[in-house]
Design goal:
There is one protein chain. The protein has 251 residues and is of the alpha/beta class. It has eight helices and seven strands; from the N terminus they run E-H-E-H-E-H-E-H-E-H-H-E-H-H-E. The chain has a seven-stranded parallel beta sheet with strand order 3-2-1-4-5-6-7, sandwiched between helices. The chain is globular. The structure holds NADP nicotinamide-adenine-dinucleotide phosphate. NADP nicotinamide-adenine-dinucleotide phosphate binds at residues 13-14, 16-20, 37-41, 65-67, 92-95, 115, 119, 143, 145, 187, 189-190, 192-195.
Length: 251
């Protein structure tokens, strides 16, 4: 265990798997007490809590569909009871959706936007409300995607949700400066459940590797960036987007 986040409390949404899991473990290993949010995968969330406890850290699992306001409010109540406050929010929960625009339904739009954008709005609003009231600053880190800049055929709803997350990030950074620092991470292709043949055509996965670093990234390679943004080294950083993306975007 290191101790850069000793005494800090954190919520990581969508922490039962993939990138969120790696971020939860990284924050806890650095000393934060972590709320591990999940929606449909309780067993996997409890596995993350166990892994953190085995490493000497402190965490608990909390269920909420981030797109549902009543569930989000209950989650924040539980976090308040358990942790007494919140210093760090990682808005990570998200889904992907592949589909040509002309076949996309209003239900597809709602499902995607509820998870990827409404969830960021609801959790961000509630976390920042609490951070302002606490009066001890805070960090919000929103997980976007390189596709939020790049766009992609047959992926427009996902790309739109991730572009909007970047706009929320910059706006919140201005609105809540100088006390609350708000940044985004826009990963490139990362090897998680999202990028398996069950969720994505194999030829697309191969195409994802056609970037300068010629491989998929690992969740821990995103977590290290989140750890920096949450920690004592990032006190002069706000409104920025960081790209652990293997070179897919070079702004
Ligand atoms: P993943 O392995 O599919 O995990 C997604 C996580 O989000 C799971 O923990 C899932 O929880 C949770 N989740 C989904 N919908 C939710 C909801 N409505 N409420 C609460 N939790 C919800 O995906 P990942 O690759 O780690 O992606 C994490 C984030 O990174 C996403 O925002 C994604 O868009 C972004 N991203 C991923 C990549 C990539 O290549 N993998 C690239 C760029 C950006 P349950 O299983 O408990 O439901």
């Amino acid at each position: 265990m290191t101790d850069g986040l000793d005494g800090k409390t954190a919520l990581v949404t969508g922490a039962s798997r993939g990138i969120g899991r790696a971020i939860a473990i990284a924050l806890a290993t650095d000393g934060a007490e972590v709320a591990v949010n999940y929606n449909k995968s309780p067993e996997r969330a409890y596995e993350v809590v166990d892994a953190i406890a085995k490493g000497g850290g402190s965490a608990f699992a909390v269920k909420a569909d981030v797109g549902q306001e009543d569930e989000v409010l209950s989650m924040f109540e539980a976090i308040g009871d358990r942790l007494g406050g919140l210093d760090i929010l990682i808005n990570n929960a998200g889904i992907e959706m592949i589909g040509p625009l002309l076949e996309s339904t209003n239900q597809d739009y709602d499902r995607l936007m509820d998870a990827n954008l409404r969830g960021v709005f609801l959790c961000g609003r509630e976390a920042i409300r609490r951070m302002v009231k606490q009066g001890r600053g805070g960090r919000v880190i929103n997980i976007s995607s390189d596709l939020g800049y790049l766009g992609r055929e047959d992926f427009s709803l996902y790309c739109a949700s991730k572009g909007a997350v970047l706009a929320l990030t910059r706006s919140w950074a201005k609105e809540f400066a100088p006390d609350i620092l708000v940044n985004a991470i826009a990963p490139g292709p990362i090897e998680t459940d999202m990028l398996t043949p069950a969720h994505m055509p194999p030829e697309w996965i191969e195409k994802e590797k056609q970037i300068p670093l010629a491989r998929l990234g690992q969740p821990e390679e995103v977590a290290s960036v989140a750890l920096f943004l949450a920690g004592p080294g990032a006190t002069f950083v706000t409104g920025q987007t960081f790209g652990p993306n293997g070179g897919s975007v070079m702004p």
